[in-house]
Design a protein that fits this description.
243 residues; 3 domains; Serine Threonine Protein Phosphatase 5, Tetratricopeptide repeat; mainly alpha; 13 helices
Length: 243
């Protein structure tokens, strides 16, 4: 398998941002890589099932051995189980307290820490040369930080996904977060494109900024579990939300 190392690092979230962008782009067009990816995932799943089976066998052996040790072992196990149940209860109550505490965090401070101006260069390279003229002009205005003019240009190409992405980012710069959400949701609902990672991340930040904290957490948790470019940032942000 020619791409085994890269596939392994992708599945385990070890690719850096630039590698991950290029890999995901290749995964949409490279037939050989797609085939290797499917083979790798099948193998990975089989190994995972084997590990689970081995663990269950091991636990069953421990259970059978404990049964032979009689009532004293049962009492000892009972104490352990009771202690474990207490710990679980404490953790559950603590989790509920953390959940209720989410809304007390400074969403504005977290937003300010995690929102950065998105550079358009990689997105332009990923899209290729087939870009509508209003979108090109809009991105030029965006890079000049003339966000009102940028939005005006992007609206002339309402179905262009690149325009939607930078239109949403422009709305964020203008503090028009509901309009930004509409742009990012448009891209996410389109489903098959290069800009979902960015759209999900910035949609999560928009929800954070507008104090839709539960919605923000749902999105950020999803990003943190996937091979997104923003996985590391999402994991860090979740920790800060919970502290």
């Amino acid at each position: 398998m020619k791409n085994y190392d890269k596939l392994y690092r992708y599945v385990h979230g070890e690719l850096d941002e630039s590698e991950l962008w290029e890999f995901k782009k290749s995964l949409e067009t490279d037939v050989e890589l797609i085939k290797e990816y499917n083979e790798f995932m099948a193998m990975h799943q089989t190994i995972g099932q084997h590990d689970k089976f081995s663990l269950l066998n091991h636990l069953n052996m421990i259970h059978q051995e404990n049964k032979k040790k009689g009532i004293q072992r049962f009492l000892a196990d009972y104490r352990v189980v009771a202690a474990a149940a207490s710990i679980i209860l404490i953790l559950a109550v603590g989790g509920l307290m953390i959940s209720n505490y989410y809304g007390q965090q400074s969403n504005n401070q977290l937003y300010a820490a995690y929102f950065t101006h998105e550079n358009s260069m990689f997105s332009l390279r990923s899209t290729g040369s087939n870009i509508e003229q209003p979108v090109i002009q809009g991105i030029q205005y965006y890079e000049m930080q003339n966000f009102d003019a940028a939005v005006e240009m992007f609206e002339k190409a309402p179905d262009n996904l690149l325009g939607k992405l930078y239109g949403g980012l422009s709305f964020m710069e203008l503090n028009e977060f509901e309009k930004a959400k509409e742009s990012f949701n448009f891209i996410i609902q389109h489903n098959d494109n290069l800009f979902i990672d960015q759209s999900e991340w910035y949609l999560g930040l928009c929800n954070l900024k507008t104090n839709h904290t539960k919605e923000a957490i749902t999105i950020i948790e999803k990003i943190a579990k996937e091979n997104s470019v923003y996985k590391t940032k999402a994991q860090k942000l979740l920790k800060e939300l919970k502290n």
